[in-house]
Amino acid sequence: MTAATAPTTSRPSAAASVPGLSPAPEAAPEASVALQGEDAPVPAPQSDAAPTSVARPRGWRRLVPSGRSLVIGVPFGFLLLFFMLPFAVVVKISLASSRLGVPPYADLAHLDGHQLAIRLDLSSYVSVLTDSFYFSAYVNSLRVAFITTLICLAIGYPTAWLIARARADRRSLLMMGVIIPFWTSYLVRVYAWVGLLKDQGLVNRFLHWSGLSHDTVHLMQNSFGLYVGMVYSYLPYMILPLYAFLVAMDRRLGEAAGDLGARPWEAFATVTLPLSMPAVVAGSLLVFIPSVGEYVIPELLGAPDELMIGRVMWSTSSTASPGRSPRPRPA
């Protein structure tokens, strides 16, 4: 069944009737379409441009990483080399049985004929969980790290808030005051606190000179000296992530809460604090994790009987190392 084409009539264009204008080119007449049925497919329009294909690397070029892979792979490779591999060595040593020799631990696996024998020694983990000495050291380390994190958060959040709300020309100067302690060696800074807090130190001399105290105030070799050193050393790790978030936060959010009737503390509790929780968690982890294994500060500023896992590990390694006298356990 075919349909007859309708006759087409050409009409004069408007440009042809206006003098001085060339007539526009006439449109090509429509071609007649033969209908073979109601379901006849309509041919897709063909483009004059050649089909484009995505060029894919072939052969050995597929093995060459892209720029994005290199940017991501460099830090991951660094962590794998300097964190995961030493951590795997520590895990291997913890599961190996001790022996007299070099190295002072046996291999986890050895080949016996045609059989591979794997021997794991779990006595170290059992002693940590069952020996009250090691268990107390772990619990006390967690307690000291938790209190240190709370104090750093209580001091660091207002400090980061004030720096973030300061004028732009003063922020760099204030942040320099936070970062300046990193210009000095960590051990030197801790020894500086020894000179300040000891019985004949600068603090006690000032108290005697000012008349505030005529007796010697013991400021170190106790919990006070321990927390002073811990908070001083790890406070910048709390301030930096908090400042990075607070300085970038949109201030109009707090202003909008005030326009809706919220008081300043209500705007802080309902808007600023919930939004800044990722920065709070990041700063708390940066303070808590290294505080658990701290050794230098408890050794120099803490009480002699202060059980910390870092001091216990040093005492254990001193006992196991040749040429070093064993250190007795604190009473």
- The number of helical elements comes to 13
Query: Largest sheet, order of strands side by side?
Result: 1-2
Largest sheet features: 2 strands, antiparallel
User: What's the Cα radius of gyration?
Assistant: 38 Å
Shape descriptor? extended
Q: What value does the average pLDDT take? A: 79
The count of strands amounts to: 2
Q: Which residue ranges are poorly predicted, with pLDDT under 50 across at least 5 consecutive positions?
A: 1-22, 27-38, 321-331
CA(first)-CA(last) distance: 109 Å
Task: Please name the fourth-level CATH homologous superfamily of the largest domain.
Answer: MetI-like
DSSP strand content: under 5%
SSE succession? HHEEHHHHHHHHHHH
Helix-strand makeup class: mainly alpha
User: Can you tell me the CATH class of the largest domain?
Assistant: Mainly Alpha
Q: What is the CATH topology classification name of the largest domain?
A: MetI-like fold
Number of domains: 2
Named at the architecture level, the CATH assignment of the largest domain is: Orthogonal Bundle
